[in-house]
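Appendix B, record 7
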Amino acid sequence: MHIIGITGGTGAGKTSAVNALQTLGIQALDCDAIYHEMLADNAEMRAGIEAQFNNVSTDGKIDRRRLGEIVWCDPNALHKLNTITHKFMCIEIEKRISTLKAQGVKIIAIDAIALIESGQGKKCDIVVGIIAPLEKRLSRIIKRDDLTKEHALMRINAQQPESFYRGNCDYILENPYDTQAEFEQKCTEFFTKYISRLN
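C-alpha cells (predicted):
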C-alpha cells in the first residue's frame, strides 16, 4: 500500500488537497474527523482528557470549544492534550489502514495537522505540506469557524510555522488562491502526475 500524507496548518487548504485526491479515486483518512468520532466513542481517551482538564465536559461529552479555548492559548496545555490524543489516534489510524489494506486498497491518504509530530508521517511514503499566506488563512478560518480575528490568530500561532513544513515535508503546495476550486485544480494536477509515476 502506498500512503500519501497531507499536512499543514488550519486554513491552509488541506481539505482542497483531499478533495483533489478523492476526485482521483484515492480514499483519505481525515484525522480531524476521526478525532471528533473518538471524542464521542472512545471512553478511555475521553477520560484521559477529563482527568487532565477541568470543566471541559458536560454529561460525558467533551465541549470542544471550551477545550479549544484552553489549549490554543497555552502551549503546555496543547502539548498535554496531544500527548493524550496522539496515542489513541495512532492506534485507530493503524486499524483503519490495516482494514483498507486487507480490502486490497493500493493507495490512501492520511490528512492530519499533526501528521509529523504524532509520528503518523513515518507511515507515509511521501508527505505533502500545504501552506498559505497568513491573511488568507485568517479569512478562511474566521469565515469557516465563526471566530474573531484574535481567536483565529491565536489558533494559527499555536500551530507550526511555515518553516516547519518546508523543512519536514517531501513536497510543498502553496495556496494563495481566492477560491477553493483554483487550489483544488492545482492539487489535482500535482497528484495526477505523482500517481502516474507509481504505475
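Remarks on this record: Residues 75-102 form the longest helix (28 residues). DSSP finds nine helices and seven strands in the chain.
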